[in-house]
Predict the structure.
Amino acid sequence: MKSGRHFLQIPGPTNTPDRILRAMHRAVIDHRGPTFAELGETVLSDLKGVFKTKNPVIVYPASGTGAWEAALVNVLAPGDSVLMYETGQFATLWKKMADKLGLDATFMQGDWRSGVNAAAIAEALAEDKAHTFKAVCVVHNDTATGITSDIAAVRKAIDDAGHPALLMVDTISSLGSIDFRTDEWGVDVVVAGSQKGLMLPPGLSFNAVSEKALAVAKDGGAQRSYWDWHDMLGPNASGFFPYTPATTLLYGLREALDMLAEEGLENVFDRHTRHGEATRKAVEGWGLEILCQNPDEYSNALTAVLMPDRKGADALRKTILDGFDMSLGTGLNKVADQVFRIGHLGDFNDLMLMGTLCGVEMGLQRAGVAHEKGGAQVALDFLAQTDNL
Ligand SMILES: *Cc1c(COP(=O)(O)O)cnc(C)c1O
């Protein structure tokens, strides 16, 4: 038994605020009754603001992976070609899913240290004169690497090539933390999840869907049932769902939407930017290296930190968990044991960030990792000297 609060600083699931926990602590209601309809209607309508879209947002009782699958099967049939880009482990997993679903996925190779190269996408699309690629799929914020890609640039690459491919974007770890503009960036299918920027427990996921994607889904896509967008949209029009929704999580979502609105979405993004900057200053102060190599692509949701000799990250994480009751993200796949990830997204403030950074610095010392002292102090000075709005 450990006293005090556990520090859940993995990049999702994030800390669920007490307000959301309380909002969910209530009796389950009839999901075909009038009280539910009101909840469903307001949630479905207010979600649009968070996605910055006028089009429908579909909610699934599933983890983010479910919404990945929904995105693919509604508009793509086995044998269809898709263009995907390797920004890290999450892009890799989405590509593996495309393979399993029988899609012909071209995976543009990345180095796990930089984001989507829009020029390379433009080139691949320009060469595809027969328009065989039906979709371009990219991850906005790859949570394995702490890299945020420029989605507007990907949209421009598709437009410049005059290519009709749909643009699909995974925003599971960016929505509600890092600015994302579905309509302005012409994103046809957005994939999101509940347990990161939206501050909810795991269990809900989302697709925001453009008119173009809905039209493609009408007569196309793969055989599907549970994930079918059009089956959802019918009952959704009056606030209902075709099957039992995750009622309790939807009460939590109602509260999360209120919290984001009260703080103001743009203020939420600014807060994440400030905490991202403070974290990077601490890493620099420790003399350690950030995995993401391009400052324009630094993620404001998490920071992946390279170990001095590219080993021992898991031992360090264990030291920190055992000694200071804080969970940090593990290195995945190609960077296993080489990096640890500091989540700084969701329900978070300056003192929680300083607790996190102090925990890392104490862990580095206790685990005997070569570093310079005082990284946390650099972050502390930065936070003291800059306004938190
Ligand atoms: C967390 C995450 C996923 C996986 O979501 P699950 O809810 O675990 O299914 C996919 N993509 C990104 C970018 C993520 O951060």
Q: What stands out?
A: The chain has two domains: 7-14+264-385, 18-261. Residues 18-261 form a domain with the Aspartate Aminotransferase; domain 2 fold (CATH 3.40.640.10). The chain has a mean pLDDT of 97.
